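Forgive a beginner's question, but would it be possible to get a protein, spelled out as residues, together with the matching structure tokens, please?
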Amino acid sequence: MKSDKLIAVHHGALGDFLCAWPALLALARGVGDAPRLLFAGNMERMRWLAPLGYAPCPPAMRRALEGLYGDAGEPAWPDGLAGAVVAWFCLDHLPVAAHPRIVPLPCLPPGPNGGEEDKGEQGRTTREAAPTRHVTGALRDRLERAGPAALPWTPRWDADWHGTWQRLFGGWEGADSRTVALAPGAGHRAKQWPPQRFAAVAGELAKAGYNPLYVLGPAELERGMAHGSLMPEGCEIPMVTPADHGELARVLRRARLVVGNDSGPLHLAALHGAPVLALFGPAPAAAWRPHGAVALTSPLDCAPCSATLRVLGCGWRNRGGQERADVDRMPEAAPCMDAITVDAVLDAARALLETR
């Protein structure tokens, strides 16, 4: 059956989506006259897809997609998806059974943790969970292998996709600003640097004549970050909680520098061309670093230990995905994040501030 529509499925977090955006652009640039581009995922992402020609996936098609979950064998193709090919973005494996009309686009190597187990020195089991290929490049490779046989048209990669983003959505405006945006949150707690250390960095930046500004989202507010621990002694650092991604982008674009954990806001800031300092612990910077950002990685030999953070090498706060019974006695931060010092962050931040 001829395909007259392509449905892109992406249910990942903001940072995952932004890493995949160049691949979505490549799919859009390959469209001929007849096919339609549809998107199934978080509708907040449509602001970055509508200019590429994507439209929201109709409710009937979304329900048909949901019906694909849980099939052990090849599912019967739902009538609601007649004439459609599905490009399914995922981390390392599809959440649905294989089907000729589903084009899997995993951005990490196969395996439960994004890597393969290997026997290291003295028979110890180690995990090579740090793909050397950035996820954006890995998705490009997947697209090139998938089309044109599986897709209704051949994707066309935009070599200047970063510039295309900024032409569509705006570039950096903070060259003359004194604001340093600090993003202390992260989608996974293992990626969070201790809030008290952000407070120490904010205090030193304020003493140096900069204007530190905390950027918090709903998850950070739920975790109580707006209270106490982010404030240096004798200093009140302003906070903003952007109402939507458009407001978040405006805040980040106008900052002289953005410093924070590996998280969606840092990916967004980097795409807009803002200078970014990203702190990495358990996740591999080689795979997840925001484009153009400076990555400050943990000094521990065991880091990184996980590409997906489903299981951490040290078992911090989890074991087999289950919350540990002794969680209250665990350190506030994962050991790899705890090993990043305030001085290291300040040195890296000053270097970026002085060269811009």
